[in-house]
Design goal:
The protein contains six helices and nine strands; from the N terminus they run βαβαβαβαβαβαβββ. It has 230 residues and is α/β, with parallel strands linked by helices. Helix 3 crosses helix 4.
């Protein structure tokens, strides 16, 4: 089945895309929605230029649309994006939804309006299993925002690895932080992953941090060919 992936730049959409390919689905496009509302509950906000680079790294042509603020307009933008994907031959939409009914229902409604199915391979999957797939699967995942008690500035730009998993477990036990950030505790950015034909090199960044909230923004990046085998 041919599909288009909703690409946020983060770990969940990237992993969902990979799992769909493992299930035998064929990708035709990556959809990047740029919300004008910095507090959008529907769409990922930071580092969207890198999200476009992810689509290119996968060898796909991006579908980019800007979403004005408001629940209804965000849903309308999804319909427009899914129609563009349908025009490229997509039969289904792959989304990285894990536990958010708010996001999943809106994606399904928009897809139904265009006549597309929705595939959410991470839906209700154990969060620690998701994190293990990322750490052991060769994903270069970085923490791009933090917004919960217990996080410190050193988390910004930090790679998701075994040490980070241990620290996340401590934050979950001490402060109730959701392991994969489903409560908005953090967001992520993927720089390399299975299926990438080129990796994303970060050339420059800008960070802000105050108390337990911060953002790591990639201000300059480039796509580079993978290192040749030794």
């Amino acid at each position: 089945m041919r599909y288009a992936t909703l690409v946020s730049g983060g770990k969940d959409s990237c992993l969902a895309h990979h799992l769909a390919r493992e299930d035998g689905f064929e990708p035709v496009a990556g959809i990047v929605i740029r919300p004008t509302d910095p507090d959008s509950h529907m769409f990922h906000v930071p580092n969207l230029d890198v999200a476009v680079a992810q689509v290119q790294a996968l060898g796909l042509e991006p579908i980019e649309l800007e979403a004005p603020p408001g629940k209804e307009t965000e849903t309308e933008i999804l319909v427009d994006a899914f129609q563009a994907a349908h025009d490229r031959g997509a039969e289904t939409i792959v989304a990285g939804a894990v536990a958010s009914e708010y996001q999943r229902v809106r994606v399904e409604r928009a897809a139904e309006e265009v006549g597309l199915k929705v595939h959410t391979p991470l839906w209700r999957k154990d969060p620690w299993q998701i994190l293990d797939l990322l750490v052991t699967g060769g994903y270069d995942v970085r923490f791009s925002t933090v917004a919960a008690y217990g996080f410190a500035e050193h988390w910004l730009g930090r790679r998701l690895d075994e040490d980070a998993l241990e620290d996340l477990a401590d934050l979950e036990a001490a402060y109730g932080v959701h392991p994969i950030g489903e409560g908005g505790e953090y967001e992520s950015l993927v720089l390399d992953a299975p299926g990438f034909q080129r990796r994303i090199d970060v050339l420059d960044t800008a960070s802000t941090f105050q108390r337990d909230r911060g953002e790591w923004s990639v201000t300059e990046h480039q796509l580079v060919d993978p290192d040749p085998p030794a």
